[in-house]
Amino acid sequence: MKNVLTIQSHVVYGYAGNKAATLPMQLCGVDVWPLNTVQFSSSTRYPKFAGPVTTNEDLLKIVHTLADPEVDFLRRVDAVLSGYLGSAEQVDAILEIVDTVREQNPDAVYLLDPVMGKAGKGCIVAPGVAQAIRDKAVSRANITCPNLEELQILHGSELKSFADAVNATVELAKKGPSIVMVKHLHRCAKQPGEFESLLYDDNTGKLYHLTRPLVALPRDPVGAGDMLTGVLLACLLTGKTALEAFEHAQNAVYLVVKAAEDAGELELQPVAVRREIIDPPLTYRAVELNPADYQAKQKAL
């Protein structure tokens, strides 16, 4: 069985970070090693929350102990997943962890979820974080999963159209990650009011576009992106192709969000659809696109 060290936040109530990713990843057939960067009472969207932050020193101490020859656990790790990073120093700590894992297992995969921005809000992280992710982390990642705002930050210029998003996705893959999934295209979507996503696999040169309904919750669900990246990684580790993993992840997470709508809840509902997460009906399929078509469109402008 494959093992994933996932370094993200944790909440007691609700689903975000590791809390959102762990169960779905386990259901998809991987063993999950959660390393929590914070432990909060709930996500920060609520009027009041509290909890401790794990220092970078403690994160490193935990990982180095896992690598100690007396226990020799870290060599079992097949992949590292990192989510929200609170400081430029934490980016450095995560990359040290990735290096430590790869010393034990040179084939270990690193999935970087570059949590930096939100639609309509731009960059939301502390000063220096976006630059550290762009300049240091992207080139070390095998897989990265930005949303549109994060893709724009990594690209360095405004993205205004579907063609812009396609070209930025392909260009990002040239900087290190062999697989890039853009979780949600927002304003660059082909069809307003739909949830659209891209996946580019630089190993094959294949580009895929998937459209599914946008679930009308009162506010955007916290943790859906964390769950999406986790399921994508789990599917890849268990032998699915990039296309198969993309379709599985998008359909599974859609059902989790839809379950929240059906239950009248603001929080994700993975337990309610646990069986479907394992083997979701592939109601929404990806369509293959030719990246060159969109490069030509951009040049024509």
UniProtKB/TrEMBL annotation:
<dbReference type="GO" id="GO:0005524">
    <property type="term" value="F:ATP binding"/>
</dbReference>
<dbReference type="GO" id="GO:0009443">
    <property type="term" value="P:pyridoxal 5'-phosphate salvage"/>
</dbReference>
<dbReference type="Pfam" id="PF08543">
    <property type="entry name" value="Phos_pyr_kin"/>
</dbReference>
<protein>
    <recommendedName>
        <fullName>pyridoxal kinase</fullName>
        <ecNumber>2.7.1.35</ecNumber>
    </recommendedName>
</protein>
<dbReference type="InterPro" id="IPR004625">
    <property type="entry name" value="PyrdxlKinase"/>
</dbReference>
<dbReference type="GO" id="GO:0008478">
    <property type="term" value="F:pyridoxal kinase activity"/>
</dbReference>
<dbReference type="GO" id="GO:0005829">
    <property type="term" value="C:cytosol"/>
</dbReference>
<keyword id="KW-0418">Kinase</keyword>
<dbReference type="InterPro" id="IPR029056">
    <property type="entry name" value="Ribokinase-like"/>
</dbReference>
<keyword id="KW-0547">Nucleotide-binding</keyword>
<keyword id="KW-0808">Transferase</keyword>
<dbReference type="InterPro" id="IPR013749">
    <property type="entry name" value="PM/HMP-P_kinase-1"/>
</dbReference>
<keyword id="KW-0067">ATP-binding</keyword>
<feature type="domain" description="Pyridoxamine kinase/Phosphomethylpyrimidine kinase">
    <location>
        <begin position="76"/>
        <end position="264"/>
    </location>
</feature>
